[in-house]
Inverse folding.
């Protein structure tokens, strides 16, 4: 159902762009035909991208399609925003438009030459105010969309922002004060990311000298066979008490499921918390670090199990839970969790999607309290789909616990 809705929206967007950028700005002729075919080709490129990336084709297939997807989105949004001012100006111009007939002018070929007959004179028709308005609107939308996508690509492909956050847990043992977590999520190793993407993230995390590294889901967008080489730099992660991982919804998108990645990460020195918890012993005190599977695992019999991960523990200790989606805090609250670390949202990734994400998740990004549980949602260090981030730069979080 979601796929059909997406296809319908893409087709509708292309029709709308044809109507606004081609039909309303050109007359009958070769230019209109050329622009129409250009949109058809771009639609075909987009289809090839979605089909090709799922068949494991090379990254060069994905780049043009995903970039056009972003440009198409912003062209559509900007043109829709411009509909009202364009309509107001159009009504104003329609009332004023009075194009006078051009006066014929006799042209002399030279001294003594007879004047050219008036019937033979061809005067180019002036551009109508309507066409001028439509072309101006199209130009504004085009420049704005390209500028926005260009900025967004620079953000998405650049270094993640280091967000330093201090969180006070009321019942935290004072000896655990200052315990530091490097939190990263949504790395999204895939057809548009090279090994340099992973190496940079590992280098930046190591520079934080954290006590614990938490990878909160959506590490990959493919199988180990396709992307295993891109994940190998994770073996170089450095921290005092180890690196931990919980599944995100994208780990369940491959036919192989998350099992092969759990095994691969284990060989790279990253421990997966599969509805389980470990004790982090620091300066003679103990913190419970738990992790649950993503809700997307329910369909394949790998659902989150909060009772298994959190049951039977010493409730006098503080508990930090790794759970990919912020919405999982509803169950975390029932089990007395003090702090939940999540990702999934990308902070919206491409504004104004942050407004849509807020309809599904209780927290879009940053720190909030939900049902008495503090939740920190990182924006993620990668991107999904278009290599574009607007209004939500990539993030690695340096989180320090305070008593």
């Amino acid at each position: 159902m979601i796929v059909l809705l997406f296809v319908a929206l893409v087709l509708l967007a292309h029709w709308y762009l044809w109507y606004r950028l081609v039909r309303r700005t050109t007359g009958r002729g070769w230019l209109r035909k050329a622009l129409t075919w250009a949109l058809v080709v771009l639609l075909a490129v987009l289809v090839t991208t979605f089909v090709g990336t799922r068949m494991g084709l090379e990254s060069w297939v994905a780049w043009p399609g995903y970039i056009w997807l972003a440009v198409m989105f912003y062209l559509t949004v900007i043109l829709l925003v411009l509909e009202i001012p364009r309509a107001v100006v159009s009504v104003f111009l329609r009332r004023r438009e009075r194009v006078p007939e051009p006066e014929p002018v006799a042209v002399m070929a030279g001294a003594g030459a007879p004047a050219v007959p008036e019937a033979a004179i061809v005067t180019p028709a002036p551009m109508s105010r309507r066409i001028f308005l439509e072309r101006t609107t199209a130009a504004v939308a085009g420049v704005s969309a390209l500028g926005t996508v260009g900025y967004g690509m620079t953000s998405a492909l650049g270094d993640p922002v280091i967000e330093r956050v201090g969180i006070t847990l009321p019942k935290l043992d004072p000896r655990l004060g200052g315990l530091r977590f490097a939190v990263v999520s949504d790395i999204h190793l895939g057809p548009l990311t090279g090994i340099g993407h992973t190496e940079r993230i590992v280098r930046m995390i190591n520079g934080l000298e954290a006590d614990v590294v938490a990878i909160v889901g959506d590490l990959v967008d493919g199988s180990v066979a396709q992307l295993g080489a891109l994940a190998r730099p994770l073996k170089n992660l450095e921290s005092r008490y180890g690196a931990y991982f919980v599944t995100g919804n994208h780990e369940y998108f491959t036919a192989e499921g998350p099992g092969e990645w759990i095994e691969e990460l284990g060989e790279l020195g990253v421990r997966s918390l599969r509805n389980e918890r470990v004790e982090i012993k620091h300066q003679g005190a103990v913190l419970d670090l738990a992790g649950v599977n993503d809700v997307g695992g329910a369909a394949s019999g790998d659902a989150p199990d909060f009772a298994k991960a959190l049951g039977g523990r010493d409730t006098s200790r503080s508990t930090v839970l790794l759970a990919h989606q912020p919405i999982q805090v509803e169950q975390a609250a029932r089990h007395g969790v003090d702090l939940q670390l999540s990702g999934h949202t990308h902070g919206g990734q491409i504004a104004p999607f942050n407004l849509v994400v807020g309809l599904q998740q209780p927290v879009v990004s940053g720190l909030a309290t939900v049902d008495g549980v503090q939740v920190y949602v990182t924006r993620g260090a990668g991107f999904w789909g278009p290599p574009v981030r607007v209004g939500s730069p990539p993030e690695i979080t340096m989180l320090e616990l305070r008593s």
About this structure: The mean pLDDT is 90. The chain has two domains: 2-95+129-154, 160-402.
